[in-house]
Amino acid sequence: MPHAYSQARKSHTEEHDGIRLQKLLAQAGFGSRRKCEEMIVDGRVEVDGELVTELGTRVDPKTQQVRVDGSRIRLNPRHVTLALNKPKKVLSAMEDPKGRYTLRDIVGDKYERIFHMGRLDYDSEGLILMTNDGELSQHVMHPKYEVEKTYIATLEGRMSGNVCRRLVRTGVQLDDGWIKLDHCSIIDQSRDQTIVKVTLHSGKNRIVRRIFGAIGFPVKRLVRTQIGPIKLGDLKPGSYRVLSATEVRSLSKEVGL
Questions:
Q1: Distance from first CA to last CA of the chain, Å, rounded?
Q2: CB–CB of 57/43 below 8 Å?
Q3: Is residue 2 part of a domain?
């Protein structure tokens, strides 16, 4: 009983008086409490725009803004961000009037007000990020930030390295203007198909399929493997995982939060 009372009292204190700053930083993935205390003493932490060096400082992550080395810490306990591996024939939506399989069928109703940040077309696979953090979602999807995305594309036909280099150097003209790849490399090839790894910032609809289709190499299979600093890794199709505080922090930094 004393332990239960102690825990209840601790939680009551944190609810009303906030959480110790060093504990908040540790929860956000900045290392041990001791390391976080050193960061505070070294003058690297701001709360609501004011430099804080007092170790006893308490903050409310729901209402106060904390920055380390100028970058904002995002740690609202109600917020969650997911990495999901979308299989083919799954709609990048939370519901579908036609009854097709959607992202909602994968994540269920466990997370309140969660939504996808960007899309993959119906026949494409791979990484989709989801969150119920509205501010993070707006920044990730805003054209101003155009987060870098990486894909593995299987193409019809044997494509030369020169074509890859040309797509990076000069790009290709589509109906809605010129587009260039940031990176393109051939990772495997046979007589009738080529597998390439491509990176680009554009979030336009079906952009990778349109680029290669325009130069005569239709995409047979397309898998998105990375969005900004977040990698698909060994996440199985049709499954998802919750991003760590460190991953959310790196994604937030990438989009100017």
A1: 43
A2: no
A3: no
